[in-house]
């Protein structure tokens, strides 16, 4: 984006682990800095014309989401926009009994950590409470599994990697065994591959800070 829009300045934040290395070649109009989005952001009031945030549903607990929306409001210029893209990870539409069971496990894990997997449905309220208006909102349905063609296959692969990455944490926090987890994952993706019309929704919303 920084290359496509050379007259704009881009600032990226992350708590740390995934920040580009200082030696990484970046366009001159693009900087990254370590910052926790769930705390006070290191930016003056009304700094940004446009804020973009994506796939943070598993990064904040419910209280942190409120703080994030308030900070976004503070650092957005009057008339500026915030775009939020999030998967509705709390629901596999068209999934069968294994998907429902797996999502009960995911929900239990999330609740234990103060997370709301379906926060996407609360976000419009949090954003309007913070002071934004809703400029645009919609969703895309992404197929999951072999019956969803190449996109379905790739998305299933991605989803499986994400769930696999959470295994150690899940075993630590829930009373399930390693073999139960592996078996659940195998049965889940067999089921998803075998069912047509299975999908997850990704919600895309643009909010505006009212002009002063
Ligand atoms: C699932 S990734 C999403 C990355 C990116 N937004 C995207 O769409 O590809 C979550 C990222 O958020 C970062 N992160 C987690 N909690 C954070 C926080 N409180 N403040 C800033 N970054 C955070 C993680 O280090 C990780 O790089």
The biggest beta sheet reads: 4 strands, mixed
CATH class: Alpha Beta
The low-confidence runs, each spanning 5 or more residues with pLDDT under 50, are none
How would the global form be characterised?
globular
Question: Hetero groups bound?
Answer: S-adenosylmethionine
Q: Which whole number gives the mean pLDDT?
A: 94
Count of beta strands: 6
> Strand fraction band?
15-25%
Secondary-structure content class: alpha/beta
Give the topology string: H per helix, E per strand.
EEEHEHHEHHHE
Tell me the radius of gyration.
Answer: 19 Å
**Count of domains:** 1
Strand line-up of the largest beta sheet: 3-4-6-5
CATH architecture: 3-Layer(aba) Sandwich
Please, how many helices? 6
Report how far apart the termini are. Answer: 28 Å
In the CATH scheme, what's the topology name? Answer: Rossmann fold
Structure description:
Residues 5-80 form the Methyltransferase domain. With 212 residues, this protein is an alpha/beta fold. The longest helix has 17 residues, at 149-165. It is globular and about 55 Å long. It has helices spanning 62-75, 97-112, 123-130, 149-165, 167-173, 178-194, and strands at 10-14, 30-34, 48-54, 76-87, 133-143, 199-208. It is built from 6 helices and 6 strands, in the order βββαβααβαααβ. The strands form 2 sheets. The chain has a 4-stranded mixed sheet with strand order 3-4-6-5. Strands 1-2 form a two-stranded parallel ribbon. It has a single domain (36-208), classed as Rossmann fold (3-Layer(aba) Sandwich), CATH 3.40.50. Helix 1 packs across helix 3 (123-130) and helix 4 packs antiparallel against helix 6.
């Amino acid at each position: 984006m920084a290359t496509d829009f050379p007259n704009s300045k881009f600032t990226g934040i992350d708590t740390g682990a995934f920040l580009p290395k200082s030696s990484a070649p970046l366009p001159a109009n693009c900087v990254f800095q370590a910052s926790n989005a769930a705390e006070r952001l290191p930016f003056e009031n009304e700094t940004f014309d446009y804020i973009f945030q994506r796939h943070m549903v598993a990064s904040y607990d419910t209280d942190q989401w409120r703080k994030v929306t308030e900070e976004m409001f503070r650092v957005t210029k009057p008339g500026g926009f915030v775009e939020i893209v999030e998967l509705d990870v709390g629901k596999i539409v068209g999934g069968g009994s294994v998907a429902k069971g797996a999502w009960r496990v995911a929900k239990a894990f999330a609740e234990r950590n103060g997370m709301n997997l379906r926060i996407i449905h609360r976000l419009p309220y949090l954003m309007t409470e913070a002071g934004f208006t809703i400029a645009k909102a919609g969703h895309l349905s992404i197929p999951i599994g072999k019956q969803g063609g190449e996109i379905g296959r790739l998305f299933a692969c991605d989803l499986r990697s994400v769930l696999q990455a959470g295994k150690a944490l899940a075993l630590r926090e829930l009373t399930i065994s390693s073999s139960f987890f592996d078996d659940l994952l195998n049965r889940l993706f067999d089921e998803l591959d075998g069912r047509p019309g299975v999908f997850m929704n990704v919600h895309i919303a643009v909010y505006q800070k009212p002009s002063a």
